[in-house]
Amino acid sequence: EYLRIIFHPVVLTMGMAYLGVKFLRYAMDSWIPTFLVVLGLDASNASYYSAIFDVCGIFPAVIAGWALDRIFRGNWALLSMTAAVGMAAGFFIAAFYPVSPLAVALSFGLIGFMIYGPETILSGAASVQVAGEKNGLAIAGVVNGLGSIGPIIQEKVIGWLMQHDPSGGMRNVNLLGMGISVTLVLFMGITVWRGARVRK
Q1: CB 53, CB 66: distance < 8 Å
Q2: Is residue 170 a contact partner of residue 77, using CB atoms and an 8 Å limit?
Q3: How far apart are alpha carbons 125 and 130 in whole angstroms?
Q4: What is the rounded average pLDDT for all residues in the chain?
């Protein structure tokens, strides 16, 4: 039964979604100061501006469980899909309208606001909801295990994108982030649709 649950499409979708979320979250934490310096901001101010990302993520991380119960009626996939739409919008703004370091920092703040909720839910409440209390912790371990790949590979991927042309590389990183976010929207949308069919 344990193996059947681990390889269930929904569990694998959760794990891959969490990998994407962790990839993007750690990428932002690691590289935002560099991006802002590329845009012309001095290093000391870049460190302050980069904090917008994490500050904007505090409140959603705290209320994610409440929002899951009260707003999304326990539908973790719908919550994650909604957040991914916001993430995609933030990356779109950063990629196509980098009018100033502050504007880009604020677009990263939007990403931070949207990304911390799914990060909190996918590794905890969603696992229990999908597998039940008996297998919830095991599934959370699988999801966290897949998610832990994200922080490892993001340094290599983004370092490679940035190494030759920092300005073009930054745009490509934002396009990559937008692509990952859109992929999350699609996968979570399919999960929402499948869940609705099962309930019928």
Answers
A1: no
A2: no
A3: 9
A4: 92
- Where do we find the tokens 């996939």? 77
Tell me the pLDDT tens digit for each residue of 72-96: 998 999 999 999 999 999 999 999 9
Given a contact cutoff of 8 angstroms between Cβ atoms, the answer to whether 196 and 18 are in contact is: no
* Distance of alpha carbon 56 from alpha carbon 5, whole angstroms: 35
Assigned token pair, 99? 């009018």
- The CATH architecture one would assign to domain 2-199 is Up-down Bundle (1.20)
The residue ranges of every structural domain in the chain are 2-199
Other Cβ atoms closer than 10 A to 5: 18
* CA–CA gap between residue 190 and residue 184 (Å, rounded): 10
Distant-in-sequence, close-in-space partners of 29: CB < 8 Å, separation ≥ 6: 53, 54
Q: What kind and span of H or E run contains 144? A: helix 125-147
- Identify whether the C-beta of residue 181 lies closer than 8 Å to the C-beta of residue 84: yes
Distance linking the first and last C-alpha atoms of the chain: 25
The residue written with tokens 């979604």 in the block is 17
91 close to 174: Cβ distance less than 8 angstroms: yes
Q: Using the CB atoms, write b or e for 146-183: b if 16+ within 10 Å.
A: bbeebbeebeeebeebbeeeeeebbbbbbbbbbebbbe
Task: List, in sequence order, every beta strand (DSSP E) within the chain.
Answer: none
200 pLDDT more than 70: no
